[in-house]
Design brief:
Elements: H1 8-13, H2 21-27, H3 37-53, E1 58-63, H4 71-81, E2 89-96, H5 99-104, H6 111-127, H7 133-139, E3 142-148, H8 177-197, E4 204-205, E5 208-209, H9 216-224, E6 227-230, H10 263-273, E7 276-279, H11 281-287, H12 296-302, E8 306-308, H13 313-316, H14 322-334, H15 338-351, H16 356-362
Parallel strand pairs: 1-2, 2-3, 3-4, 5-6, 6-7, 7-8
C-alpha cells in the first residue's frame, strides 16, 4: 500500500521477497552459501541488455558495510569468479550509514573500526596488488563511493571541533551525516594520493545528498563531493535573499541552519562549481515529492549540472529500459526540447566515472 513509501523501513523491507529475508540473502546477495550465483546471473542479464542497446552505459551499486575486514576480498572474489564484467558497466560502492546498528549488536567497538574495515583493505591492495589479485582487478572497475541511508533520521550530534575522534566514538548513537562524509573524504584523499603515485586510477565521493533531512547535508556535500544524488532540498534554498546581509550579517544563525538571507548562496555555489546532481524524478514521485513539483527543470534552466538517473528500478519502473522511462516521461511532462535532452545526456556522461576515451565518444552522441 502507499504506506510503503512513507516510511524508509517499510520501503527497505520490500526487498525481502514475499516478506522473507532469507530469500533476499539467496537471490540478491553476493556472500551466501552459493557464493552469490543467482545475483551474478541477474547482473549479467542486465549487462547483456546494455551491450545489446549499444549506447547505454550504467553505474551499478554494490555494498560494503564495514562490519568485517574481509568484505572487500569476498566481494572481489564474487565479481571475478562469476566474471561480472562489461565495458558498459562501472561500479559505485555504497556504504550504508548503519554504525548504530552494528554497535548495538556489538559487531564494532568504535567508529574507527568501521573505517578500518572499509579502507585498510584498499590500502593493502594498492601497496601490494600481487597479494590481493582479485581485489586489485575488481578496483579497476570501481569509480568511487556512495553514502546511503535515510537522511531524515534525527541527528543527536552536531559535527564540530568538540566531536570525538572515530576511535573514541563508542556510543550507540549514529554519527551525523557530516561526520560520515568527512571521514570518508579524508580517507579517500589519502588513498587517492597513494594510488596516483602507484599509477592506479583514483576514486570519487558521490553520496546521496539532499533527498530529505536537514538542508545542511547539502553544505557537507558541496565541500567534499564530486557529484551528489537527488539534491531535492536545493529547491528550498533557491529564493531571493531576505533583508539581511548574508553570511556574517549578525542576524543569521550558524551555517548548520540556513537562514533566508543565506538561501540563494548554496544553489549558486553548486552552479559555480558545476557539481553534478543525478536526479531520479520517478523514485522521488513515490517517496518524497510529486513529479510536477520536482525542481529538475528549474535546475536545468539555471545552468546547474543535472542529469536523469534511475533509482531502485525494481520498485519504480515497469520495463527493462528504466532509463528510457525516465527520459520519456520527463520529456513529455516538462516538454523538454531535444536540446534539453542532449544536455541532460551529456551531463550524465561527464558526471560518470567512465574513462576519458569513453566519455569523449559518448558525450557527442546525445541521448
Amino acid at each position: 500500500d502507499r504506506n510503503t513509501f512513507h516510511r524508509f523501513d517499510k520501503f527497505n523491507a520490500k526487498y525481502n521477497p514475499i516478506g522473507e529475508s532469507i530469500l533476499r540473502e539467496i537471490f540478491i546477495k553476493t556472500d551466501n552459501r552459493i557464493s552469490g550465483k543467482y545475483f551474478a546471473h541477474i547482473i549479467k542479464e542486465v549487462m547483456s541488455d546494455l551491450e545489446e542497446s549499444k549506447y547505454q552505459n550504467a553505474e551499478l551499486r554494490l555494498s560494503i558495510y564495514g562490519r568485517s575486514r574481509d568484505e572487500w576480498d569476498k566481494l572481489a572474489r564474487w565479481a571475478v569468479n562469476h566474471r561480472v564484467h562489461s565495458n558498459n558497466v562501472r561500479w559505485l560502492v555504497q556504504v550504508p550509514r548503519l554504525f548504530d546498528v552494528y554497535r548495538t549488536k556489538k559487531q564494532l567497538a568504535n567508529f574507527q573500526e568501521m573505517l578500518e574495515n572499509i579502507f585498510l583493505p584498499l590500502y593493502e591492495a594498492t601497496i601490494h596488488p600481487a597479494q590481493h589479485p582479485e581485489l586489485h582487478l575488481f578496483l579497476e572497475h570501481v569509480d568511487g563511493f556512495d553514502s546511503v541511508d535515510d537522511e531524515s533520521k534525527p541527528e543527536h550530534h552536531i559535527f564540530n571541533l568538540d566531536s570525538p575522534l572515530p576511535g573514541n566514538w563508542v556510543e550507540e548513537d549514529n554519527p551525523p551525516y557530516s561526520y560520515y562524509l568527512y571521514y570518508m573524504y579524508a580517507n579517500m584523499t589519502v588513498l587517492n594520493h597513494l594510488r596516483r603515485k602507484r599509477g592506479f586510477h583514483t576514486f570519487v565521493l558521490r553520496p546521496h545528498c539532499g533527498e530529505a533531512g536537514p538542508i545542511h547535508h547539502l553544505v557537507s556535500g558541496f565541500m567534499v563531493s564530486e557529484n551528489i544524488s537527488h539534491g531535492l532540498l536545493l529547491r528550498k534554498v533557491s529564493g531571493v535573499g531576505g533583508v539581511h546581509g548574508g553570511w556574517g550579517c549578525g542576524y543569521c544563525p550558524p551555517l548548520t541552519v540556513l537562514s533566508p538571507c543565506q538561501a540563494p548562496v548554496l544553489q549558486y555555489l553548486y552552479y559555480l562549481a558545476q557539481i553534478g546532481i543525478a536526479m531520479s524524478p520517478l523514485s522521488n514521485n513515490s517517496l518524497f515529492l510529486s513529479y510536477h513539483r520536482n525542481p529538475l527543470p528549474e535546475y536545468l534552466s539555471r545552468g546547474l549540472m543535472v542529469s536523469l538517473s534511475t533509482d531502485d528500478p525494481l520498485q519504480f519502473h515497469f520495463t527493462k529500459e528504466p532509463l528510457m522511462e525516465e527520459y520519456s516521461i520527463a520529456t513529455q511532462v516538462w516538454k523538454l526540447s531535444s536540446c534539453d535532452m542532449c544536455e541532460l545526456a551529456r551531463n550524465s556522461v561527464l558526471m560518470s566515472g567512465f574513462s576519458h576515451k569513453v566519455t569523449q565518444l559518448q558525450s557527442h552522441r546525445g541521448p
